[in-house]
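User: Okay, second chain of the day. Same drill as before: sequence in, structure tokens out.
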Amino acid sequence: MSGFVHPVRGWDHVAAMVAVGLWGTFLGRPAIWVLPVVFPLVMALGGAAGVIGLPLPGVETGIAISSVVLGALILGKVRMPLWSAAVIVGIFAIFHGYAHGIELPTAANPVSFAVGFVVATGLLHLAGIALGLVTALPRGEVFVRAVGGLITAAGAGFLLGII
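Assistant: Same drill. Structure tokens below.
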């Protein structure tokens, strides 16, 4: 359970994970499903690196930048090849996973903790996809792009330590 609630308690994680689903929605099929699958898979690898104590500098900065960049990609409705979108999402997933891995409670089972944070991440991605589906409504795209702008602003706040 601690692994499941961990991502939801950190607004920096929530913003980036929702942004992955939202950006995938903008990119359309197959990105709408590929990005939310790539993120937790790579995040689990980052988590394993954190658990075993591999050094990774700038973790909190990487997490904050993920919100800035992913939000900006939504705001700008940036389209790119699927492979490059997956690489961007994967790079950010390493930082998010690593943060979960190093914060693993000593009493928790690392495998069940990892399963919990991967499931929570997937649900946050699904929330982003669901929110992104409003693009089919009149002015829905404007709303979603505005949410991207808010995610970018929140990421800047995380980066500057304001939030």
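Helices lie at 2-9, 11-27, 31-52, 59-75, 82-102, 110-132, 140-160.

User: Thanks, on to the next one.
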